[in-house]
Amino acid sequence: MPHLVIQSPHLASEAVEHLARLTQAGKTVELAPGAVRLTDAGEAPAVRAQVAAYCQQAGVDWAYVAPGARLADWKVLAMDMDSTLINIECIDEIADMAGLKPQVAAITEAAMRGEIADFSESLIRRVALLKGLPLEALEQVYVERLRLNPGAERLLLAAHRLGLKTLLVSGGFTWFTSRLQQRLQLNEAHANTLEVEDGRLTGKVLGAILDADGKAAHLRDFAGRHGAPLSRAIAIGDGANDLKMLGLAGLSVAYHAKPVVREQTTHALNVCGLDGILNWFEDTLG
Questions:
Q1: Within 10 A of 114 (CB to CB), how many other CB atoms are there?
Q2: Could you report the average pLDDT of every consecutive run of 10 residues in the chain (286 residues)?
Q3: 71-89+148-285 under CATH 3.40.50.970, yes or no
Q4: Are 241 and 111 in contact (CB under 8 A)?
Q5: Whether 31 contacts 279, CB under 8 Å
Q6: Residues designated as active site
Q7: Is the entire prediction scored with pTM above 0.90?
Q8: What is the assigned CATH class of domain 1-67?
């Protein structure tokens, strides 16, 4: 039978006891502060539905995992950048430098919820509003506002230690992905390139726009070049633009994601950091 991993920054003993009873679990094993494994947990559809409903109400992340699951058995870790690896939507913060954040953020939010079918068109509209901004605005965003999401470095360190190849693929901008690739020693990073003339943004994107199809294509190509079947790939994202990439991966994770994404992934983290993924595997504990 599978195990059920439950975790939360504020995991209450009442929640652990309730879920243990609900799933008729065998044992309760503490993995780390705020993380518990319930062994031999029932997973009938009715039980799963009750687990999901209770955890949503209680603010607990949950995942059924196979006994003995190891991160080392996976070959690729792919992730989105904005609001997944990092804490911000870079284009919104760049727009803030021009006093245009509300207008740009509204388009970004609608696109991530899946309400705008054409991501490329939405990006063109947003980038056009940035015309004339100096490159110093991007530097200011990177230094003052961009932060790695909780647990990102710990997750990547574990992945690299166990031999996984790491891919950052973003509908954002190479100005940020290239810096993060170097900083985090990622194997590859792909994103859109902003056109710059005389140190200022022209309001245009160079080349083909990296959209949902582009993200999926990069994951497929990356896995192929590293001899990894897509069934052995882990992909993490938060928005509708990530769905095609997530759909290719054997393990897909909705990270603090929009509902449209949570409904279509194999796993989700709604309250924990990215290193919550490590609690699903037995070779990354401690």
A1: 16
A2: 97 98 97 97 97 97 97 98 97 93 88 81 92 96 98 98 98 97 98 97 96 97 98 96 97 95 97 98 90
A3: no
A4: yes
A5: yes
A6: 80, 82
A7: yes
A8: alpha beta
